[in-house]
Amino acid sequence: MLAQRTNLFKSSGTAAAREAAKAAADAGTDTVDLTVGEIWSDLAPTIRNGAIEAIRRGLNRYTDTVGSMELRDALARKVSVETGQLWRADEIAVTSGAKQGLFNVAMTLINPGDQVIVPAPYWTTFPAQVRIAGGMPVHFDTRPNGYVPRVEDIERVITPLTRAIVINTPGNPSGAVYNAETLAGIARLSMERDLWIIFDECYGPFTHDGHRHHQIVSLSPDVRGRTVIVNSFSKSLALTGWRIGYLAAPKELISAVKALQSHTTSNPNVIAQHAVLHHLREGDGAFETRLKDRLAAARQTGLSVLSELQRVPMPGAQGGLYFYLDLSGILQPTLGNGRAKTADDVVAALLAQAGVAGVSGTAFGDPMGIRLSYGIPPEQLEAGLERVVRVLNTWN
Ligand code: PLP
Q: Which of 20, 198, 207, 271 has its CA 20 to 30 A from that of 333?
């Protein structure tokens, strides 16, 4: 009945986990939802005021397809500061969240049959979008190296069909932060092997324990012409629902994105654009600092609960907003005829026995992992993780 294309994707694993949590809560179960990919927070005052101002001014018209010129100018300045190079508005496209930005990139960069390297575990949308664009995601396991790819592992999976590599640092779901040396190595490889770099830094502001987020273009300016920077205000301003993201890339690519977006969504919502512009102009960084502090405190609370885990190693949680647990120690292969258990079984047991919802690593190409968000209110986080520890410590 439907187009064959629909076989290339299904509703994202994270969305399905969120729905399971909601269904349990709706059925009256006391549920702690650790599936969320967002931060529990109030609205930044500058965002609120910018949106109110937009309404007072009666803004109601289309803006330029890839964002108002003022916002693109402001974003070009932001990217210039972050990369240490000069960017112009024609190298910026504002999108309805980073997700649309990434989709635009997939559709404008990938030819049918092209391969795109997506290190695993990966955010589930990356390979789905590659497939929708007609490409083929190519994965390799980063678990042996603390969820960060080794350059030689990337090199091993490059073929003549390889078109691009996706870098997501800090990473969802792993929370791993790529160090400068790794990024410089990837940059070198992309030059040698003529690859595009899709650089998703949506969690860039959130790094912990002395880990630092590095921008690949500032480390290796030579790759600027083959890099697409993908970013968003969803996480950095706790603004998931407002749907403002952006791309920074060579202007030929931005022009193609503009043409594509002109046939899909046109400009992102004008009120949200204006609110973000107002924030970029008037924000003093205090809101961001508060958000980071809140997340760091939640991480600390969570880690102290998780330190009670007996058979599961402590997560690194170097950046982002997730604890990613490696369950391979408790999911030993089953001998005999029994089906080997995976993180799916753990996630189902957590929901059924403890009323805690997490996301199984199978959604991220890793049947041994589970993702638990710490972007929720501290009391809930503590209670939820205590239950997780109880179930995992008695798992057999
Ligand atoms: N990139 C990564 C790595 C993400 O985890 C997410 C959301 O969870 C996004 C992009 C998309 O963010 P948004 O579309 O809300 O800007």
A: 20
